[in-house]
């Protein structure tokens, strides 16, 4: 049986959308069904979110936290929170920003607290850090070294057709695959 997994994301300039698409590809590679939902369109998808086995959250890091648009989605979800409609669903997160750190961790922490408020079960990235030894490379999976979720880095002066680099897209796919596999195991 196919598990439906939702990816709810915001992207102001297209870079985080590329990451969201890579996460979705990872889900599909694990033979699960994926719904890619931009936050602008969430009002047409509350039923999809209610049906999903897992929800993966994605936002650029703006000013050290989720973007205002993503926070708008979080606040809108308070109706679902009141009913604990997402309780016991799996949750995971990803973010993208211009700097290597750029305070991306704070964005993932914000998402994990949000998931906890909803009674959801947080799934981390599950990869060892890459690119942190003399033999490491920027091509490594998880080159930014995150545990809580997938991180991507997009140079501020390059378009979404060029960045984030392939390693970050591959890392995002791993997150999608992992959540799909966990959803199947959790069934
Ligand atoms: C309002 C604003 C705030 C930003 N704040 C940060 C930040 O705190 N850390 C960082 O590394 N990059 C920051 N950036 C850069 C974006 O995270 C980066 O350009 C990212 O790729 C944008 O993703 P998007 O194209 O999906 O909107 C900021 C960009 C904007 C527009």
Automatic annotation (TrEMBL):
Domain Flavodoxin-like: 5-152
Alphabetized PROSITE patterns for the sequence: FLAVODOXIN (PS00201), FLAVODOXIN_LIKE (PS50902)
Names of the cofactor(s): FMN
Keywords, sorted A to Z: Flavoprotein, FMN
SUPFAM superfamilies according to UniProt: Flavoproteins
Native organism: Kangiella taiwanensis
InterPro entries for this protein: Flavodoxin/NO_synth (IPR008254), Flavodoxin_CS (IPR001226), Flavoprotein-like_sf (IPR029039), FMN_Rdtase-like_dom (IPR005025)
One Pfam family matching this protein: FMN_red
Name of the protein this chain belongs to: Flavodoxin family protein
Tree of life domain: Bacteria
